[in-house]
Amino acid sequence: MRKLVVLLALAVLAGCKEEEAHVEFVPRPVVSEIIQANPIEAREFTGTVAAVFETDLGFQAAGRMIRRPVSVGDVVTRGTVLAELDPADLENTRRAALAGVTAAEVRLETAQRTAERVRELAARGIASVSKQELAEQALSAAKAEQDRSQAVLLKAEDARSFATLVAPVNGVVTQAFAEAGTVVSSGQAVVRLAGTARREAVIDLPESAIEALGRNAAFDIRLRSSPTIRTSGRVSEIEPVADTATRTRRVHLELADQPEAMRLGALVLVRLTGGGEQIVSMPTTALIGSGQPPRVWRVSRPDGQVSAVPITVAPLDDGLLRVLSGVTPGDEIVIKGVNSLKDGQMVGERVQE
């Protein structure tokens, strides 16, 4: 009886092994995506209208400012008085310079008479050579002093004509640096004037958006308060230094035309309409661990074998990375469960996320 039980058990075990031998290994499916090249996302940014040329204006002479008839936001035309210096101070400076010229002329006349007398005495052998040299040196110094005093007088007379600061072009006062009663130095900024002849749109873009801009990138620009008022623009300048707080860089857009309603300071909506480069992107979850260089699992079809591929990436927005090298459009990469795979492992069919 015991032998019969043993034989039955062996028969059952043999049957199980035979069934196991017929079970095939089925690779697990993977969540993956096919790499594609797409144009930069047509995002909309808010910008402002600014002047192409903005200048700090100041007096060419020092003095006490007695009047500044303009305020921030005032629209001015060429020749409009922006500020004035106290003419009394400038007149006193001119008079002092004139007195200096008179004194220098008197000293020059004295030096000339002395030099002539010493020359006569030296010719008769009465005055020594050294005394004659001293007289000639004094005459040269007096001439130099007269020239200097004349230059001071000319500068003082010019300063009197600089007592009035006027607008060199049509524009808008965007900032005031000094109030009436302030003593200003020559060249010190009093007001900032933004010219209205040429305007531009300025926007702040993240680094990822700037990198994807093509050379001929074109923008549609609409007035935020009245979207029917619109124009187009192209990049004229990208500032090289990013803002330390927002990590964005300022982009200047040249306007195709100058709608009157797009005044300085007006808010505009800016959207890329063409000229953007084709970019290759992938989710950050596709990266294998945190090692360097970054790697992803590339799936070889139809066999389904995965291999680790080093790549070069740059940050994009919304959990995406821009792929610069390593994989190309058409490649299949694993984007989920990457840390559970091994190099050379076989995987099953592709499952979309």
From TrEMBL:
Residues 57-189 form the Multidrug resistance protein MdtA-like barrel-sandwich hybrid domain. Residues 203-274 form the CusB-like beta-barrel domain. InterPro entries: Beta-barrel_RND_2, MdtA-like_BSH, RND_pump_MFP. Coiled coil: none annotated. SUPFAM superfamilies: HlyD-like secretion proteins. GO terms for cellular component: efflux pump complex. GO terms for molecular function: efflux transmembrane transporter activity. PROSITE patterns: PROKAR_LIPOPROTEIN. NCBIfam families: RND_mfp (TIGR01730). Belongs to the membrane fusion protein (MFP) (TC 8.A.1) family. This is RND family efflux transporter, MFP subunit. It comes from Thalassovita taeanensis. The lineage of its organism: Bacteria, Pseudomonadati, Pseudomonadota, Alphaproteobacteria, Rhodobacterales.
